[in-house]
């Protein structure tokens, strides 16, 4: 029996349409808009002004605190202006807009394809380099990576878990990275192990990617302490707590971080970025994203420069299909619907999904038939039907008591409900309120 | 370009499951038992089923349209289930007008007074059945003897159910072993060769329906297993303690609508608990109460009452029995 997490879970149609498509480089646009806030935490502070000449990889906005991240130019050219533009979240955020001229990289970036296996950097140097390179969690959470590498005093990391689950339907960028950059991922994993001072790493991969499992298992024989762990395909296995439960059978307590059970989780794409930063001196200014959808001509995977407009990647995949009903940044379960295709792709853009209208249009909500299906699929052991009722009745005390804050917003409940009840919509509202109340109490 | 895109929160896709799919799935699962009852009780079974189903649809429609003046939801399939279950629970020679009263009580009192599907506390079909049992005790307990496909409707030979034979016999001082000779063999009972209501007679057909519902994930195993398991254990203990006074587990499981109740009535979504733990407590409750009523109570069979009593506890179970939260210490 393959391993998986302890409770709940669903198996949505996988729809990995672009799994066979090798990563291609997306053409550099004429203009990029690079938001100064692409991560969880404080926005970075812009250090360039209108008219400045920049090169690829040059720092253009500086991290403004411990939980913040540096931002580098993804192109060479001149700063056209700093302006508030709409980003993928729908909010207007300050962005550095650069007019592209050629493709001139900073000299110290090693652009060769050659694998550098030997890790020279010390633990401290690695953490500093990861921070300097502006690396954030590339699975979509965009939490600054160096923060997770700095284990708080009194705690010890025992194991590094690499999230290569890619449990969101449709997305294939991590899958392609494993197939095409397997050695780089493994060296990146060893760098992370060194930073955390652990001698064991587990790479969790769902068994709907047998080629990636086989490939990495073969390569991992040449690396010490890295174990490839095939997992049963089950959503939301990519959730941190679920992945830890699946791989090492430990449950992170409510409200606690993974380090509580001795684990640190990093995404497989992050491991690749760490390799590039530490071994190749390359900061995070490009990444891989999947552009996909059933009506799309050419579902595919692209290495794009950060700040490229969403419409460019859609063009590259054959243009927007007529029947598009929703444009989702990310996967169908947890991605964000975009209102415009002019917004820039950022560090957190793992994919772009064009859903046909009939696939995404919501059906009429019916009365709850008390079937309990939402309860049985919830990976956190919550009672979504009840949380929805309490959120609707504004019974925040009960919401808190019934652990609404544990909800990871995976959407399994809404996905499953035969009465098409918008459970997560209400739960999110309730969660926001309860969080406010809890903060006020402190 | 297409500017009219939807912007709504995640998740952006749905499983495609619906209330109808589940309800008609249950109906499909009841088909083997339904066919069995036609096969054993002929015309009577057909008349009773059609009357019960048509009346449930009619009353639901009339009440929603003219009394409550709400959206008419007869297409969701739940009235069909109530109709078939009601038919399953009555003798196949029950007069049409009594069936209609049963349907009116089931839909009108059992379902609509609470606010319709999703809000009712008691299983509607059982509410109808128990009402009939109390109001028309004679008609409701004269069970036709199977004459196969050619069985008639009203004018049929009747006989007692195996449970009633045992119960009455024990009361009049006969020994269990002598009574056992008067009832059908276990195999015959499993295949439906006994007196009883339309839906309860054919254990094999009911089990087939259960398997189908489990595969389609319409229900989970918790309730049927808890009910049947607790009945088996309890009657097993009693039987071992005094084989002359108490019948064994196989007999209890195959008779008196236990399988029908455990598979199709206790598992009703609306009136059963939400969490797995809750479902097991509820199922065991039904099993224990059934045995208590059968062995010590006035009625030879107790499943209907046991389910209704446990239905009443479901809101309480839902409040106090929480699913195991992720990260909670295992006790
Ligand atoms: S969104 Fe929240 S409540 Fe719904 S299934 Fe996921 S964790 Fe449970
Ligand atoms: S899945 Fe939907 S219908 Fe079923 S209990 Fe949950 S909210 Fe109610």
TrEMBL record, chain A:
Gene3D superfamilies: 3.30.70.20, NADH-ubiquinone oxidoreductase 51kDa subunit (3.40.50.11540). It is an enzyme of class 7 (translocase). The complex is composed of six subunits: RnfA, RnfB, RnfC, RnfD, RnfE and RnfG. It holds the Pfam family Fer4_10. Keywords: 4Fe-4S, Cell membrane, Electron transport, Iron, Iron-sulfur, Membrane, Metal-binding, Repeat, Translocase, Transport. Residues 358-381, 397-427 form the 4Fe-4S ferredoxin-type domain. GO terms for biological process: electron transport chain. Belongs to the 4Fe4S bacterial-type ferredoxin family. RnfC subfamily. It is found in: Cell membrane. This is Ion-translocating oxidoreductase complex subunit C. It comes from the Bacteria. Its EC number is 7.-.-.-. Part of a membrane-bound complex that couples electron transfer with translocation of ions across the membrane. GO terms for cellular component: plasma membrane. GO terms for molecular function: 4 iron, 4 sulfur cluster binding; electron transfer activity; metal ion binding. InterPro entries: 4Fe4S_Fe-S-bd, 4Fe4S_Fe_S_CS, Ion_transpt_RnfC/RsxC, Nuo51_FMN-bd, Nuo51_FMN-bd_sf, RnfC_N, Soluble_ligand-bd. Its cofactor is [4Fe-4S] cluster. Its main location: membrane. Binds 2 [4Fe-4S] clusters per subunit. It is a peripheral membrane protein.
TrEMBL record, chain B:
The chain crosses the membrane at residues 33-59, 66-88, 94-114, 126-145, 190-214, 221-240, 246-267, 279-297, 303-321. The keyword Secreted does not apply. It comes from the Bacteria. It is found in: Cell membrane. The modification FMN phosphoryl threonine is found at residue 161. Keywords: Cell membrane, Electron transport, Flavoprotein, FMN, Membrane, Phosphoprotein, Translocase, Transmembrane, Transmembrane helix, Transport. Its cofactor is FMN. Pfam families: NQR2_RnfD_RnfE. One of its GO terms (biological process) is transmembrane transport. It is a multi-pass membrane protein. Part of a membrane-bound complex that couples electron transfer with translocation of ions across the membrane. The complex is composed of six subunits: RnfA, RnfB, RnfC, RnfD, RnfE and RnfG. This is Ion-translocating oxidoreductase complex subunit D.
